[in-house]
Amino acid sequence: MAFNFDLDVLSLDICREEEGVSHFLGILKEIELARLKYIAINEEYLMDGVVDLYFITAYLQRALKTMTDLEEMIVVRDTTIEGPCTIF
């Protein structure tokens, strides 16, 4: 199964891996980042105290500058839990 840059949403979820954003965005090639049209990011990546906000923000800013085809960034909030999610 291949990722369809025109239709698929790249979802970055903190509950799966705390350093997922920096790791994943770090391994994508610039041409792949440039082709992304839709991304969804867990709001906890953007909250101070859950992860190293400065570190994550630096990766996001660098990646967003490369995402020239980006049309939509969805910030995902889990309303079924209170506080940060549990990382297993």
Protein model, in words:
The N and C termini lie far apart (27 Å). Helix 3 links the parallel strand 2 and strand 3. It is built from 3 helices and 3 strands; from the N terminus they run E-H-H-E-H-E. It is of the alpha/beta class. It has helices at 20-27, 30-35, 53-66, and strands at 10-12, 38-42, 72-76. It has a 3-stranded parallel sheet with strand order 1-2-3, with no helix packed on it. Helix 1 runs parallel beside helix 3 (53-66). The chain is globular. The chain has one domain (10-76).
Compact summary:
This protein is of the alpha/beta class and 88 residues long. The chain has three helices and three strands. Helix 1 (20-27) packs parallel to helix 3 (53-66).
What is the topology?
Elements lengths: L9 E3 L7 H8 L2 H6 L2 E5 L10 H14 L5 E5 L12
Parallel strand pairs: 1-2, 2-3
Helix pairs in contact: 1-3
The total number of structural domains is: 1
* Fraction in beta strands: 5-15%
Q: Enumerate the spans where pLDDT stays under 50 for 5 or more consecutive residues.
A: none
- State the end-to-end CA separation: 27 Å
Oligomer: single chain
Radius of gyration: 13 Å
Order of helices and strands: EHHEHE
Number of helices: 3
Describe this protein with a few key phrases:
alpha/beta; 15% strand; 3-stranded parallel β-sheet; globular
